[in-house]
Model the fold of this input.
Amino acid sequence: MPRTLSSRRTSHRLAADAGLLVVAAAFVLPLAWVLLSSLDTNANLQVKVPDGVTLDNFDSVLTPEITFTPLLNSLLLCGGGTALTVACAALAAYPLSRFRSRFNRPFLLTILFATSLPITAIMVPVYALFVQVNLIDTMEGTIFFFAASQLPFAIWLMKNFMDGVPKELEEAAWTDGASSLQSLARIVLPLMGPGVAVVTVFSFVMMWGNFFVPFMLLLTPDQMPAAVSINEFFGNRGTVVYGQLAAFSIIYSTPVILLYVLVARRLGGGFALGGAVKG
Amino acid sequence: MKTATGPGLAKRPGRAPAPATPGTRPRHVPFLRALPVTPAVVLLLLFLAGPIAYCAYIAFTDLQLTGQAEDSFVGLDNFRAAFDDEAFRNAVWLTLVFTVISALLGQNTLGLALAALMQRASKPVRTLVGAVVITAWVLPEVVAGFLLYAFFRREGTLNAILDWLHLPTQNWLFTLPILAVSFANVWRGTAFSMLVYSAALNEIPKEITEAAEVDGAGGWRRMWHITLPMIRRSIGTNLMLITLQTLSVFGLIWVMTRGGPGGKSQTLPLFMYEEAFQKSMIGYGTAVALLLLVVGSLFSVVYLRLLRTEV
Done:
């Protein structure tokens, strides 16, 4: 009996492998297109072996106007938004995790509710509001909105990570006369370093990839992040140079992929869902 | 045990010191304890709750972008106009199609299938497939849109493959744009469901499935009678979350089709954008946004109910 069971397992494994590889092949085609086209002197819309491998596409998009300014804008927007999100989330999570209060539960429920609201829906009123208060087309306005839209999930994640830090260590510090904020900065946050890293990377990745928010709130071309400026390849430049579009896409995507790999390795693939799904 | 000598606690006799927080801690009034929450609350009120409240207000006005000194209150006119509007009903229908095909059928089923297959597959295959599917998910929305645009275009990869197989080709983005963007969303979003289900399946004790296997239950029966009932909470959570994500997809569709041709892939977010900006009807566009927000809130509430035992 064990033999047949194990041979059945082997054939099951082969079938599973085959099935997965078929799906992976379908998933890989668009990715292969962007990789191959970026190296192709004569790229079109199909996956094909490059006519001649070259770095010319990268060379021609690596200019201040096409790449550096938009990426710097992305960095300012997402860096600023992430810093604000993480700082506010860490502060907010602390009392929620450490002190008992009858406000905790309603607050957390509201946060969780806000986490799943479709932010896309409020972009039109946000635009109208930003026009009224003169925040339209400003980096700081966009940063504030980015931070606010990411905050609910960040607080939620942060609180869950903070719950994992044992209280005893902090109590020792309190006995020695440290204040709550001191123990948060010196003991809790360092101990939950991986958790803070996850919140930081997750917030940054979400903002880096977001198109609609800067598309609505910024108007001046000089301020556009890469998520919006990539549209230029289709707009005013006449015929689309697909090789350059592919090269730019790779340059723009690389940071978030690297960040994801960095964090995912350390904490296991499902990290981003820890807060939303585990509860 | 905590000494209840704080001024805040002294004011409220009868309230026992919090039992879960033993030890000595700095004496704080409850107000001071809540102080660190303030920056977050201010941000959320100003930039999230504020716009939502403003949304609820201008949805009932005739606010326009240009040529109007004052907006005036028009009551339910915007909503009446919406339901009379052929284009709005079209957008509602397309949003439904998009959500059902890409989220409920596509991402959910494919994510579960991938997670289930990965339980049995060999490690290198598992790693490879995971990497590919997750890369599609991590890519910025606009980049994903371009990749799929290239894939579905008349001269793109899909038609090249169909041609090679001697199957009929067509201009997907023109003939079946809603299907093309739905598949694009499956491509982009499946990783999320896959991760949710992988985590859920990993938590099922091996003994249970092994016992069923020894008893002779085949793969499908085990899936249907054991695995699915055991992960039903994850299924509920996953369905809620991907539905909410799909309801608010904008960039992907915008890049691939701009909602066209002729509104054939114009879901509610794109309809909202067009009415508010290309036609300058902010009031009307916001009414649509409010409807979207209400639908989203309903889903959020259901999601909270699903999680209620765990909060």
About this structure: Chain B is about 70% helix and 0% strand.
